Amino acid sequence: MYNVTLRTAPISEKIPPIQQGKKIPIKCYACRIYARIVYIVHVKPEDTIDFHVRFAWAGIARQYGQLAAARGSTMAMGQALLNIGREGTPSTQLGPRMGMEKTSLSRLLNNLEEQGMIERRADDKDRRVVRIHLTSDGKKERDRARNAVRKFNQWISERLGSERTARLLEDLQQLNVEIVRYPTRNDFPETADAQPDSNAA
After folding, report:
1. Which of 40, 49, 68, 200 could form a disulfide with 73 if both were Cys (CB 3.0 to 4.6 A apart)?
2. pTM for the whole thing?
């Protein structure tokens, strides 16, 4: 756990007012790095790449969530259906594809199974492997989710233009490549005060 000395006013309405110099624990690794950028280096949130990526994804998730809610479903359910292949997909592969922890994925799959969207079958070649298959109802719901994704992406593409859309996709793909190459957390000091702040008052 890191203790970050905050030197500026809160950046989000979700963060309660704090006194200058007060230390608060920050458990999330990404949040620790973000706190160092915003509070120590004095960079505005809107000047960082992660702010806009996160803000954009929040907006996309909100749109998909509203569409799913109208059908009594959730965005996560639609995401799971879209990630299940024609020959079935091992449950162990769904978590990494969707960025979900094992417990959350298990609960999601149970809900889908209760609604008759999926069924679990043992793999024909390796009976130890459980594959997730779509039922006929699951395929219909998968197609609805796929159409919603296509419609949204087409709408965005029309407003950005084909060239900007292609460049955006290329840049995002490269961003994912570079993120994997980022130095490990051991390369960072244990506390925010480990290095002097040249911008400090």
Report:
1. 68
2. 0.65
Provide the residue ranges of all domains of the chain, joining segments of one domain with +. 50-160
Residue owning tokens 């969207």? 117
- Written as six digits, the tokens of 201 are 């008052």
The domain 50-160 having CATH identifier 3.40.30.10: the answer here is: no
CA atoms within 13 A on the CB side of 68: 20
